[in-house]
Design a protein that fits this description.
Blueprint (H helix, E strand, L loop, with lengths): L11 E5 L1 H6 L11 E4 H4 L5 E5 L6 H18 L4 E6 L3 H11 L5 E3 L5 H5 L15 E5 L5 E6 L8 H13 L1
Parallel strand pairs: 3-4, 4-5
Antiparallel strand pairs: 1-2, 1-5, 3-6, 6-7
Amino acid sequence: MLDTGETAPDMTLPMATPEAAAAKPRGEYRTADVERFELSETLADGPVTLVTIPGVYSQGCTEELCTIADRHTDLGELPGQVYALSADTPWSQLAFIDEYDISYPLLSGFNSDVLRQLGVRRPDGILQGIATRTAFVIGPDRDVAYTWEADDSLVPDFDAVTDAVAAAETD
């Protein structure tokens, strides 16, 4: 897993947004409903909080993503943006956003090397290839300002994330 002070890889990924999820009924999403996320461009607007999850629709991930959605208003007052990343396809992410009223974008690591580059890809076992549960705050220079890896909790310490975003913005 990337550590504080390391440089995050630049990434271009498919992105499922709340706006696209709301625009069509579930099950009718098409490629045109998937947007493009580029970390280097997004960082121009401030730090990025990136949460990695094993997958949408699993019990723990549903709880985690909904908890983050509940706190998104608080996090939304900070500079930068919040994203969640999983190995799921963007179409399943769009359906999840719609079903659970998720207020922030989900990034698809499907068929991408980004989970390995971040050091969060499960290397073996029946769920090989999915992400472990982590969080990063990435500053505008792509330096990692904060890391968290799940142990007993499904969600990172929001006060620590808030502090890291504020610090990354001033650097």
